[in-house]
Every structure is written in C-alpha cells, then in structure tokens.
Amino acid sequence: MVFDLTQSNPILDDTKVDNIINQTGAVDTLSPLDIDIPDLEIIRNLDNRIKDSQGYWNSAKGFDLSQRRNRNVKYHLGHQINTNNLYRFQTPYIENELFIGVESMVAYLTAQQSQPEAYPAQDTDRSKLFATDLEKALSCHSEKFNLMSLVEQAVRNLLLKHIGIIKFRFDPDYGKNGEIIPESVKPDHIILDKNCKLGEDPDFVCHLLKMNVEECVGRWPKKKEEILNCLGIKREGSRNMTQEIVVNEVWVSHYDKKYKKQQGVVWYFQDVVLEKNKNPNWIYSNDNQNFLDAPLKPFIFFNHINDGSHLIDSTTVFEQAINMQDILNKRGRQIMENADRANGTLVISTDSGLTKDDCQNLTGDPNQKLLIKTAGQRTSDMVYQVPPHSLPQYVVDDKMDARVTIHALLGTPSDFTGADNDGKDEETLGQSMLKKNQASGRQDAIVRSIDRSMGYYFRFLTHMMAVWYDEKHFFTYNGGDGQFDHITISRDLFEDGVAVDVKSGTTLPFDKGRQEAISLQLAKMGVISPLDLYKDLHMDKVQQRYDNWYKYKTVPEELARDVMDDIDESDAYVAYIEIMAGKPAPEVKNPTREFILSLRKLMINDNFIKAKSSLQSAFIKYVNKNIDSFEMRDSLEQMSQGDPETMRPQNPIQPPMQTQPQFGPQDQGMMPGAMPPAPTMSQGQPMMPPSQMPMGAPETGMPVPNPAAPQTAPMGNPMSLPLV
C-alpha cells in the first residue's frame, strides 16, 4: 500500500466513517438489520451492509486490508522475491528473519495456558465451593478443546492479519447432552461492521461457512426443497449433493419498535434464508439466569496496535518490518553473488585459437589442460584470470544492521529467539539477561491485550455454560497431587453475582530457574516462609499446600480426611441443588459418613428452613435413603470382623429397622466428637424442623453408648446428625 505523503489529508479519509470533521447531519445511509421482515428483504439488506463494509476495508485509499493480509502471509511463508525479475544464473536469496521473529513471539506469548479465576457470589461455603468447582470446570473445558492451540492461531492471525478471532458455538450432537465448542476462525472469513469501534458490539458480524449440499440439507431439513431448487438440482446424486457451497452466518443487532436493542442471527445463501431467530445464546424466559448483562455475538477478538477507532488493528509489528526484510534479502543476494565470483573471471583472447565451443567446455577442473596458440606472445596475454571484486565492508555491515533492525521492530533480539549474537563479540550472562528482559518488556503490551481477551473468553464461556448446561455436565480435574476431582456443572448451580476473570499474566513465561534457586537458598537459611517458598517455586494451590503442611505438623490425622471431605461436600451440594430445584435426586453409590454429614450441614441454613415442605420432605427422604445404605454396608462390615460362620449369608439382606423416636433426658456421658446413635422416623412421619432443635446439643431419649465400643452405631434421623 502506497500513500501520497504530499497530501495533508489523513490516511483514513472516508467521510462516511473516519473524516467527519466539520460535517453535520446525515453522512451515510445504511440498510436496516431487522430480521422480522420478509426473507428477500432480509437478504437484500444484509448483502448491502456486507458489500459496503467489504468495500471500506479493502479500499486502496484506506485499510487495503485484503492486499496487506495477502502480502503478510506470503512474507511469513518465505514467498518474498519475484523470480521473474532474476536472471537464469541468479539464485533467489531469502533469509526469512520475519518467520523467526513471529514464531518466537508466538512461542513466548503463549508459553502457558491461560488460567481462569472465579469469585464467589456470596461469603458462604456454598458460594465458595461452586466458585472453586466452576474454576476447575473452565480449566477442564480449556484442556479438552486444546485452548492453547486456539490461542496460538489467534495470536499468529493477530500478527499477520490485523486481528485474531475465536468463536463459540453449541453443538447439540456432541456427547450425551451437547457441548460448547470453541474454534479459531480465519479473519479472511469474517466481515465486520465498518463503523464498529474497539470494545463495542458491532452491528453485524458475517461468518462465511463452507459446507457441502448434504451437510446443508442435514442441518436444515425443512429447507431441502428450496436448497435443491436454488442450486438447480433436479435429481439427487453423489456428485451434485457433494458440491461445496458458502453459507452466510450473520449475527446482527437491531432495534425494535420501542427502540430497544435486539440481537439475532440469520443463515442464508443466494436467495434462500435457511434460518432466522433471536440470539440463541440467551435465556429469554428468565434474565437472572444469564451470566452476562446482555446477549452478545459469540466472537472473542484479539487486538494489539489499535487507537480504538476500529475493531481491526491499523497495523502490525510484522508489517512494519517487511521493508527491512526486502533490504536484508537484497544485501544477502549481493554478498552471495560476490562469493560466487570469488575465483574471478577467465578472459581468453580470440588469437588463442580456441573456438567458442572450446570455451564452453572449460569446467574449471584444476586438472583440465588448455591448448592455445601463443604465436610468440605471452600466455598471460592470451588467457587471463580477472581477480574478483573486493566487496566493501559496509555492505556486510548493512546486511547485519537490517537483520538487527527487523528484530528490533518485532522486539525479538537474538537473545530472545535463541540465535547467536549476530556475529558480534560474546556477551556476558548479565548482558544477555538484560537484553532479554528489555525484549520481554516489548512483549508485555501484547501479553496484556491477550489477557484482556482471555478474560472475556472465560466470561463468555461461563455464560454459555449457564445457558446451555440445562442438564448436568461432568468434568474430571487433576489436582496435581495424584487425586482427581469429579465436578458437576449445570445451570441450576449458578448464583447471581458470581464473577470470572483470568489470572493476570497467565500466558507470560518467566525465568523460573533463577527465582527458584534463590528461594531454595533462602529456605536453607530459614528466612522464608513455606507459603512464599511454594509461590516462588510456582506450584499450584499454594494455600492448600501450606494448610496441608500445617495439618501435617499439628494434626496429621485430619489431613487424611480432607480430600474425601471436599469430594463429599461437592457431591452433597449438587444433590441439594437438584432436589431444591424440584428435580429427581441423583443416585450416589456407596455414600460415606462424610457425605451424609455434608447433607446435614446443608439442612442447617435459612434456604432449607424457608423452602417448601414438599422439597424439605424430598430432601429428608433422600438423606434417609443414604443413611440406610450406609448402615447396611456398615452392618456387613461388622459381620466380616466376627466369627467366619456369621459371614455365611442365610437369608436375603434386610434394610435396618427404623424406630419411632422418643424424646427425653439424655445421659451426658457421650464422648466428645463421637457420632450419637440418633433416632429415626418412619417415612410417613412429619419431621421436626431444624429451627426447633437445640443446635450443637445431642438429641434426647436415646441410650448412652459405651465409650469403649466402636463408633459404628446406626446414623438414624438426618435431623439429629451433629454439625461438623
């Protein structure tokens, strides 16, 4: 793209979009994007808006986006020289420092997986537990769909094509209950609204989808006849049904009759509207169930060099270094061709008697013999080797300077890319580290841009989960300590007020070796706390590690219970939410004592006390069912520890008998912390609400357990379980 520098007008001089100084009134007329109009009118309006924006982005007087993208991609792949301009004997010289610099930047900027961070909606154990599970689920989803690879593609597109894009879609056929699919989108296949500024919601985003006719008919079976008629297919066959077509998927914003902003999406090709409806990524029946404040288009944009006036970057560091790459190639070819002439040029006199064919047969073989007629003249007058031209040193210096300038523009010096020091004197370790840190500082601006985009990525992913996870979705999280957490996420678990962001600088690598070595030395000296040591060693879950260390030093037996307690508490919370939402209670195999105690904790809260009696009864019935299962397995375990003859099964196993509770004075000789043999009620008997029971005191009317006996008595009434 060439600009006339003699003009005083700005580079972007479109009076409908950019140069609106001293203009008043209407400057442009745009087709409406309302989807509640006839199909042909929708197609006409969308085509007009798409062509108008395409013309703006690709104008040679403006962004010239298509040409610049094509040139950037060619230079990145090494297609930098027009071979038609070279002579037959010349060899193309390409020293692709642009490729080295870009790939070094991508490796550095995506060195680590972005990590989400969820904040609880309230200062309660339930909210904190869900925030922790949500954070783990987002990480599991990222690993499942290889988010790091998607970010690499988006960053590479950002450097070459002025913008990186990741798109979300929900696939109902993926897995058992469908799944949210993130995918990296080629910016060439996206047409953006020309009037959209950075950070705003564009009026439209058009995504060009390529699919064959079979896929199109399979996705929109009700439109089969219109699709075949539009393509002129009279008879279905293997050839015409596999032809490729391009479908426009256009996400639009428009205003209704009350001037309230609405979001919609339209799929169409040629004269056929395949589908049109509201933005599907929103719960319209209950706005409180949505995570975001308003429905938005499912695209995550990555930007860097941008003054905020447009959604597409005005330039890239790659583009700024192209001219220096041309100079580098030119100087390199000069040096190479001069090296090819190192042996000089052989000049033969016509008086030597050698013909033109004889000269063509001279191969330069040192053993080759040359027969000439001197006619009394000196041999040097007949055959002369012209010495090679001595190349000036400044040519070599200019080549080296071009290489250094390219990496200076990219922010990737030799110490950053892992190459040598460009032929200069050896640097000390301190000089190399200082140079590398300076280069890293150049990349920090891009890192911050990526972190902002990734924060929006995780917030939008959370919103998609709140919308589409109407059924339970399960994730398995590796805690890094040999334990695996099984996490359940569904729409009903979301709380209003929960927040999600990305941990700052998560994609940024660091010099771990030096920091870890210093911290380990401080630990040997005893001048650093274990918590700070864990942080400096870049371990996960540093607070949990410190808590485990403290328990190991004080009460080691508590450490053995923590892992199972966390899992039981999470499962109990999911079961509680399901039942309180009026859904069937989930089956739990082999419920543990800790699981039942976690259920008991959930009954001691205002939400349960104020819930409908039918929901209370359903939850109490669920707790009793798990208690019966636990007592049955506990009885079998006691039998296995007695006489082997008692282990022989004689009759079908019967569930534990339940008795009517009696309330009265209770002996106070119970061991502290022991599980009381609590009373049970029949299933049809009404339950005493927790509010009428003494908190922290054992129930009355029960026999006193023997302190010396194992604490394996029946668990009984869930309302009587102690709160731990």
Provide an overview of this structure.
- The chain has 724 residues and is an alpha+beta fold.
- Among the domains are: 64-165 and 318-341 and 391-509, no CATH class; 344-360 and 374-388, no CATH class; 555-642 and 713-724, no CATH class.
- It is built from 21 helices and 14 strands.
- The strands form five sheets. It has a five-stranded antiparallel beta sheet with strand order 4-5-6-7-8. Strands 3-2-9 form a three-stranded antiparallel beta sheet.
- Helix 3 runs parallel beside helix 12 (393-410), helix 15 runs antiparallel to helix 16 and helix 18 (556-580) crosses helix 19 (593-603).
- The chain is extended.
- The chain starts with 38 loop residues before the first helix and ends in an 84-residue tail after the last helix.
Supply the key terms.
724 residues; alpha+beta; 3-stranded antiparallel sheet; single chain
Topology:
Blueprint lengths: L38 H19 L7 H13 L19 H13 L6 E4 L5 H20 L2 H15 L2 E8 L7 E7 L4 E3 L11 E9 H7 L4 H7 L13 E12 L5 E9 L2 E7 L20 E4 L14 H4 L1 H19 L4 E4 L7 H5 L18 H4 E4 L6 H18 L3 H4 L11 H40 L4 E6 L5 E6 L9 E4 L9 H14 L4 H7 L5 H13 L1 H25 L12 H11 L2 H4 L3 H28 L84
Antiparallel strand pairs: 1-14, 2-3, 2-9, 4-5, 5-6, 6-7, 7-8, 10-11, 12-13
Helix pairs in contact: 3-5, 3-12, 9-12, 15-16, 16-17, 17-18, 18-19, 19-21
